[in-house]
Amino acid sequence: MKLKSRKKDILFIFIILIIQTTVFIIAGINKSYIHMDEAYSLGLASYNKTNIQQNEDFYNTWHTKEYYEDYLSVNKDEIGNYKPVYENQKNDVHPPLYYLLLRIAMGFHIDSYSKWPGLILNIIIYMFISIFTYLIISKLLEKRNNCKEKAAILTLISSLTLSSINNAMYIRMYALSTLNILITTYLHFKLLDSKGKSYKLLLLIGISALMGSLTHYYYLFYLAILFIMFVIKYIKEKEYVELAKYILTISLVAVISLIIFPYSIQHIFFGYRGQGALSNLTNTLEALKHLAVYMLIIDVDAFNNTLLIILSLILGILIYRKLRKCSKINEKNKYVKYVAVPTIFYTVLAAICSPWLELRYIMPVCSLLFILAIYLIIQLLDNVVKEKTANKILIIILLLVFTMPFVANKFVDLVIGEDFRKEKESSYSSKEEIVQKLKSELNVPIDIFPNIKEVPIDNTLLFIKNLKIEPEVIYSNKKDITEFIENNANLPALYLLNSSNDRFLDEILLFSILNESYIAKDIEYSEENIKSIMINKDISNGIIVFINDIQENEKIINTIQKALKLENVTYLKRLNMCDVYLVN
């Protein structure tokens, strides 16, 4: 029987991995851009400084594309040099394990930038994420009929939510942190089942905890609550020998982690990120704002915009159970609290402490949030409907989760008009027009969303990027500007940079494509200065101009036209903190 069950596990996992990997590869092919933090990942893993802008010759001089590509890739003469991995993390805000793995992956594609080393690394990590997700769900459902089939379906759907696709496509440490949390959870499940012979398990838990602490500091939120719960368990059950072994294991992990990377103390307690997190924790109003926004993020990304439906269903079942006085749920699950409590604790604390209101900070527990919600529905349906009916309800929910992004996108296009959206979505200010049009068409009280600091206008509408539900980090809306730059790489490029709003790394990918470019930092935008910069440059076909925020764009463009005697201006794209023009 065990052999048959194991073969079924292997078959289900194989099918899941084939489907999810196919989806991830397609998403990877369509990934058209990188976020500045992805650029940081590549640079921190391979460059001799944390930021290319620290170079003395970076500003106010011309550079070729190779200058920027050097930051995003491993060169032939850098193979075998892993010193930047450790030194850069020491000077940054994260521990080094992910960057070591990324540096190894980057070594397979040298001398030029490629998105694929980082993506392939994440896709491989996600294979293990799905394996442990399946094992965890199987544990939660192990005493139910068709538990393997249900675990397989839940694992597959959870791997195809927007948060999972983002996690796999985002060249950062969050996929590895997700894996660390899942491994730690599953090993603690096994520890619950152990009968005193726990030495091997404790060793594995120690290795998992060490990896987690060296990947991302937020992992410690999860581990801390899990540790407290097991300490309480051992004390209640008077298993003092097991308690001592468990505390010793985690204590040794803490010591070894600090020996390997002692700079963690500085980062957590004295770095600007640590100080910012502590400030948020002590500011009640700010904490509540963060939690409110993260509910929207969780809805769109972890539940594909179905959280309200799922919560309504849960509430409805609870009311029905109360009114009908249904008998209690068949049996309690000894595992569920050891995943539910740490997951909720992590979500709340990460949401409050996060420096920006972004999905990435809760990515590591998004799949667990989804699984716990579906598990709760399965539990609540006990003694309410027959098992066949419960299974049909479950299938309907999962189909809804899978199809909602497509339905929502069609709905938005239907209400505001696809042509109107495509025409307006490229610039920041015009997104407000779209939101207001949608408000008037639907009579939606969008004003109920508070004007929270750091929440852009395009996110007030249920956090749908560009008014479409899709993975954020694929950057499909930037495919056009990337292709334009590739097709016009011979044009000289001028970036007029106001350093008070410096997010150059958001655009570094484009500069690694352009043949030559100039970053003008905080200069006076006079005709003389423009002429001086562009002297001896071939501008017969025009120039590409980048202007970052809080500047007088129209005035600057007019000055460039007069200085270079160019007549035409074409607005190309709104980037994260920058507008791009073709002047010819």
- Please give the largest β-sheet: 6 strands, mixed
Spatial strand order of the main sheet: 1-3-2-4-6-5
Shape: globular
The helical percent reads 55-70%
List the uncertain runs.
425-431, 444-466
Counting H and I runs of at least 4 residues, what is the number of helices? 25
Spatial separation of the terminal alpha carbons: 74 Å
Kindly provide the radius of gyration, computed on alpha-carbon positions and rounded to a whole number of angstroms.
Answer: 26 Å
Number of strands: 6
Backbone structural class: mainly alpha
Overall mean pLDDT score? 87
Which percent range describes the beta-strand content?
Answer: 5-15%
Key terms for this structure?
584 residues, mainly alpha, six-stranded mixed beta sheet, 6 strands
Walk me through what this model shows.
The protein is mainly α and 584 residues long. Among the domains are: 404-464, no CATH class; 476-583. It has helices at residues 2-30, 36-46, 65-72, 83-91, 97-106, 116-140, 147-159, 162-169, 174-193, 199-213, 219-236, 240-260, 264-270, 272-281, 284-302, 307-324, 337-353, 363-380, 387-416, 418-424, 428-442, 479-487, 508-511, 527-534, 553-564; strands spanning 62-64, 493-497, 516-521, 543-548, 569-574, 578-583. A six-stranded mixed sheet has the order 1-3-2-4-6-5. α2 (36-46) packs across α5 (97-106), α11 packs antiparallel against α12 (240-260) and α16 (307-324) runs parallel beside α18 (363-380). Mean pLDDT is 87; it is low at 425-431 and 444-466.
